[in-house]
């Protein structure tokens, strides 16, 4: 029997079989033919649009290519008309039920779609079993629309439906809560998640998506903004970093915040300098930047050289590195404070 649970007025949570009957969804596989093969139903469909991560011809595609950790070239989402007389609008996103899968970057897209469907007639959110992926999306929807904390939203949905989001999705919902129920890409919380996701993807295929390199602060003129702290090469005074690109960490504490999402991503850390509580940080850890040419070569580790005078400023290591304070940072893009001048305008 299909799983179909009424969560609030108009939004439903269901499984694959329910979606085959009703056809409106957040789906693991974007092909409409999946329903035909599974339920032996013949469906008419008409594509509205498909958006790919990093697609220069689409504003959303460009945004997600540069700002998210979603892999460039992959399908972001598809929209189509389907069902009898093509009266049903269907949105599909590609998301495996894996603890490491980035569901966070789909939240705003899907929640906006649910909002529209709910105001019109009704909307079914589903995955295969209706317990993890689609449940996480509905929980996020309740959190955003009713300003519920994760624990309260989860308890509320369990009054109507048996759900069990995987630990990685629960952690992403926790981050969603910390960002005040939105995906704030300027937030340090999101930036840490994004860098961890990129590190995990690198650990799987040893490739880095070049679109994820952050803007060179000298080229973007960010360093001219009043009140901005910048980091300059000590030798040639070339701006190499702005404060907004620094990834802060807590001295002497293990970097464990995202273990529930990205468990077992790490290899052996090559820098074994464990430091200690009494030692201050002698370096800063940063987002990968567009002047870091060595990173583009898909090397697992290497030196970071000033793009102007080629002086060594630091190093990077996808397996991570220890700070002098004892914190283990994974992955690590590290500039030595002895090699740069810190300037506040």
Brief overview:
With 345 residues, this protein is an alpha+beta fold. The protein has nine helices and 15 strands.
3D architecture notes:
The chain has 345 residues and is α+β, with helices and mostly antiparallel strands. The chain folds into 2 domains: 4-185, Protein tyrosine phosphatase superfamily (Protein-Tyrosine Phosphatase, Chain A), CATH 3.90.190.10; 209-344, no CATH class. Helices cover 27% and strands 20% of the residues. The chain contains 9 helices and 15 strands. It has helices at 16-22, 33-39, 59-67, 107-120, 133-146, 150-157, 167-178, 188-205, 217-220; strands at residues 4-6, 11-14, 45-52, 75-82, 88-92, 123-126, 229-233, 239-242, 283-285, 301-305, 312-317, 321-322, 328-329, 332-336, 340-344. α1 crosses α2 and α5 packs across α6 (150-157). The longest helix is centred in the middle third of the chain and has 18 residues, at 188-205. It is elongated. The N and C termini lie far apart (65 Å). Its EC number is 3.1.3.48. InterPro entries: Dual-sp_phosphatase_cat-dom, Prot-tyrosine_phosphatase-like, Tyr_Pase_AS, Tyr_Pase_dom, TYR_PHOSPHATASE_DUAL_dom. This is protein-tyrosine-phosphatase.
- Name of the top-level CATH class of the largest domain: Alpha Beta
Please give the radius of gyration in angstroms.
23 Å
CATH topology of the largest domain: the name is Protein-Tyrosine Phosphatase, Chain A
Contiguous helical run count: 9
Whole-number count of domains: 2
- Give the end-to-end Cα distance, rounded to a whole number of Å: 65 Å
Helix content: 25-40%
- What characterizes the major β-sheet? 4 strands, antiparallel
pLDDT < 50 stretches: 24-32
Roughly what fraction of the amino acids lie in strands?
15-25%
The helix/strand class is alpha+beta
Q: Give the strand order, joined by hyphens, for the main sheet.
A: 9-14-11-10
Inertia-based shape: elongated
């Amino acid at each position: 029997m299909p799983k179909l649970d009424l969560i609030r007025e108009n939004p439903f949570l269901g499984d694959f079989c329910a979606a085959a009957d009703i056809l409106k969804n957040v789906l693991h596989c974007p092909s409409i033919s999946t329903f035909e093969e599974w339920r032996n139903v013949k469906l008419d469909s008409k594509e509205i649009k498909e958006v790919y991560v990093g697609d220069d011809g689409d504003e959303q595609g460009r945004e997600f290519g540069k700002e998210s950790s979603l892999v460039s070239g992959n399908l972001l989402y598809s929209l189509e008309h389907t069902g009898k007389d093509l009266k049903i609008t269907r949105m599909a996103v590609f998301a495996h039920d894996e603890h490491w899968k980035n569901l966070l970057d789909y939240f705003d897209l899907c929640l906006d779609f649910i909002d529209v469907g709910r105001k019109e007639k009704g909307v079914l959110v589903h995955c295969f079993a209706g317990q993890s992926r689609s449940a996480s999306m509905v929980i996020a929807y309740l959190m955003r629309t009713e300003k519920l904390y994760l624990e309260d939203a989860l308890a509320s949905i369990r009054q109507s439906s048996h759900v069990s989001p995987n630990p990685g999705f629960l952690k992403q919902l926790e981050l969603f809560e910390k960002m005040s129920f939105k995906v704030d890409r300027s937030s340090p919380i999101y930036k840490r998640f994004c860098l961890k996701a990129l590190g995990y993807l690198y650990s799987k295929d040893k490739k880095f998506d070049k679109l994820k390199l952050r803007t060179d602060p000298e080229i973007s003129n960010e360093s001219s903004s009043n009140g901005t702290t910048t980091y300059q090469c000590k030798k040639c005074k070339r701006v190499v970093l702005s404060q907004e690109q620094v990834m802060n960490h807590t001295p002497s504490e293990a970097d464990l915040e995202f273990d529930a999402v990205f468990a077992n991503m790490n290899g052996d850390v090559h820098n074994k300098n464990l430091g200690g509580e009494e030692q201050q940080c002698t370096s800063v850890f940063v987002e990968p930047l567009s002047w870091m040419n060595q990173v583009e070569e898909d090397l697992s580790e290497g030196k970071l050289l000033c793009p102007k005078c080629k002086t060594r400023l630091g190093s990077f290591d996808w397996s991570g590195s220890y700070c002098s304070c004892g914190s283990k940072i994974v992955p690590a893009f590290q500039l030595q404070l002895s090699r740069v001048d810190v300037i506040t305008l």
